[in-house]
Design brief:
The chain is α+β, with helices and mostly antiparallel strands. It has 12 helices and 7 strands. The protein has a 5-stranded antiparallel beta sheet with strand order 2-1-7-6-5. Strands 3-4 form a two-stranded antiparallel ribbon. The longest helix is centred in the middle third of the chain and has 16 residues.
């Protein structure tokens, strides 16, 4: 994503949010970065809440691919094609499963869900969206392949646009910490008091994050950190300590798997 190369590399913020909403922060806590793939579990939660975890498993899948997050090979290797909502193929498919009768309504539901987890308004970073959408040839190929295999549930370009908008939402570490704390608090946002995800579904979502939240480094992450977490190429990571708190870090420098080096070390 070309515009991500313009983000100052030395930015570094950390936040912890307890299940009662208490925040502890350090560093660049007010800098808004694009949420990117950290958005994926929250849209998966929307599918669980709107419909059911069983539908998510049937229509997308829950197995980790063991391949890079943007792999097209995974669509050919696995019979389920989309495989998992934590990688691009499954996340694009998840957006297409949102119950909506128009693209505008689909985006509104996805965005409103992210804001419900954060407990406040989140801006769309238009420059990020434009940069990402103009260069989304790999994701466009994934969307079209999914549609060809019957594993995409709306028009491919519509799904791609809404997915790209989802990834272009701007957050800071405080927003993301509250989103994680909502999962630590059994699906209830500690700031607003809103139940965003039914408590009975939270363990299922955390299981997907634990097994596939770090792409093809998920096993190494669980071995070293042991926390269900989600990472994104924007430099953010959210990790959840169930029943207690969420730990979030942001730093733009990534390793080869697309995970923030400093954020991983901080958590």
């Amino acid at each position: 994503i070309p515009i991500l190369t313009t983000v100052p590399s030395d930015l570094y913020g950390v936040a912890i949010a307890t299940r009662d909403g208490t925040l502890y922060t350090a560093g660049d806590m007010d800098y808004r970065f694009s949420i990117q793939s950290v958005s994926k579990p929250f849209t998966a939660a929307l599918i669980m809440q709107q419909q059911s975890p069983e539908l998510l498993r049937e229509k997308i899948g829950v197995e980790p691919t063991g391949l890079p997050f943007n792999s097209k090979m995974a669509l050919e290797i696995y019979d389920d094609r989309s495989v998992n909502p934590m990688v691009n193929a499954g996340a694009i498919s998840a957006v297409s499963l949102v119950q909506a009768d128009s693209e505008a309504a689909r985006w509104e539901m996805v965005n409103a869900n992210l804001e419900a987890f954060a407990g406040g308004k989140l801006p769309l970073l238009e420059e990020v969206y434009t940069s990402e959408y103009k260069t989304a040839w790999g994701n466009r190929g994934i969307a079209n392949l999914l549609y060809n295999y019957g594993r995409l549930y709306c028009d491919p370009e519509e799904a791609l646009r809404v997915y790209t908008r989802q990834c272009s939402v701007g957050i800071d570490v405080k927003d993301l910490a509250i989103m994680g704390a909502t999962l630590a608090n059994e699906g209830v946002n500690p700031i607003s008091g809103q139940e965003v995800l039914a408590a009975r579904h939270v363990p299922e979502l955390l299981a997907i994050m634990a097994t596939a939240g770090f792409y093809d480094e998920s096993g190494e992450w669980m071995y070293s950190a042991g926390l269900p977490a989600k990472t994104g190429v924007g430099g953010g990571i959210v990790a959840v300590v169930p029943g207690r708190f969420a730990i979030v870090a942001f730093s733009p420098r990534l390793n080869e798997a697309g995970n923030s080096v400093r954020s991983m070390r901080a958590i």
